[in-house]
From TrEMBL:
Keywords: DNA recombination
Organism domain of life: Bacteria
Annotated Tyr recombinase domain residues: 174-301
Gene Ontology terms: biological process: DNA integration; DNA recombination
Signal sequence range: none
Organism, as annotated: Cryobacterium roopkundense
Protein's name according to its UniProt entry: Integrase
GO molecular function: DNA binding
């Protein structure tokens, strides 16, 4: 039998009562797919199988049950919360609570309690969470979603021009420009084709295909960078230059940024997107319009930005509400 964590029992879970149960769990994880549309399941399949493998379910039945609940959490993470599939994010206790409150639909109250309990149990074993805490998890990093300051953005621009090779400088700037300037996700940036970027005299627009199809108007401050990137001799089909598209873009990009930063400061696409959203909200752009540009369907995406929104002065606050248009 293969010496996988499942077959041996990895200390995270109770292990297996016998070899037959271990084999059944292994085969289930390898072959089972929850009853979900392929367009939703495929992007989270590898993450789900990997996490459930490390959780080491007792048998095939438990494996399929955990996969079903975890897959839905993972889908909500990337489609609604717009976060990458990283364990420290997905298995954060507060993230799970937010999913149960806002994204766990179709279950009774009892069903949601069971789902919450199971996900927190998985989290506690994979991430060493303390089950005695109310959120059953570590506090989220304070800077996980915080928008960047103008000074930080300037530093990232400067870093891009000093990377060791032309290819690294190019891809660093692609990630920075399309996240901060157009609020694209990591997967959208890596998969963006040149033909989907429209340049005109007065704007730069990016057409996103797929489930979150939309056309994004990029910030004027980043138009020159994007135009320059498009004219690079490195570029052929895709703006992010790589011989083959990464199988798991968020993981690849995280490793790329860590390597290229070479121990220095590095940005995250998530925080750059937050910076873009905050800028529009503070500029008075209608939240519904921001949602459409970002490609989300829930206002919960903006909840993490509330602490960073600058409150208007009392006079501006009064004037704002007095000018509201009549329906």
């Amino acid at each position: 039998m293969t010496n996988t964590p499942l077959a041996l029992g990895n200390g995270n879970h109770a292990g297996y009562s016998n070899t037959q149960n271990g084999i059944a769990a292994t085969l289930t994880i390898q072959n089972y797919a929850p009853m979900l549309p392929k367009r939703l399941w495929n992007p989270v399949a590898d993450f789900t199988r990997s996490a459930v493998t490390d959780f080491a379910p007792l048998n095939g039945r438990e494996a399929s049950k955990v996969m079903g609940h975890l897959a839905r959490l993972a889908i909500w993470t990337i489609d609604v919360a717009c976060q990458p599939l990283q364990r420290d994010i997905v298995f954060n206790g507060r993230h799970i609570e937010a999913f149960i409150s806002n994204g766990s639909i179709g279950l009774t109250e009892y069903g949601n309690r069971c789902r919450r309990s199971l996900l927190l149990r998985v989290a506690s074993e994979l991430a060493n969470f303390d089950p005695l805490r109310r959120d059953s998890g570590k506090k989220p990093h304070t800077d996980s979603f915080a928008p960047y300051t103008a000074a930080e953005i300037v530093r990232f621009r400067s870093q891009g021009s000093t990377r060791s090779t032309a290819l690294r400088r190019h891809n660093w700037t692609v990630l920075l420009s399309l996240a901060a300037g157009c609020a694209l996700t990591t997967s959208e940036i890596v998969g963006l084709k040149v033909e989907n970027v429209s340049i005109s005299r007065d704007s730069v627009r990016v057409a996103i295909r797929g489930d979150r199809a939309r056309t994004v108007v990029c910030l004027e401050a980043w138009e020159a960078d994007i135009r320059e990137l498009l004219s690079s001799p490195l570029v052929s089909d895709y703006l992010f230059v790589k011989a083959e598209r990464p199988k798991i873009p968020p993981m690849y990009v995280t490793n790329f940024l860590r390597t290229v930063a070479h121990g220095g400061e590095q940005f995250t696409v998530e925080r750059l997107r937050s910076t873009w959203m905050l800028g529009h909200l503070e500029a008075g752009t209608a939240p519904v319009a921001v949602m459409q540009m970002v490609g989300v369907k829930s206002f919960s995406t903006f909840e993490r930005l509330i602490p960073y929104v600058t409150a208007p002065s009392p006079a501006a606050h009064t004037a704002m509400f007095r000018r509201a248009a009549h329906s």
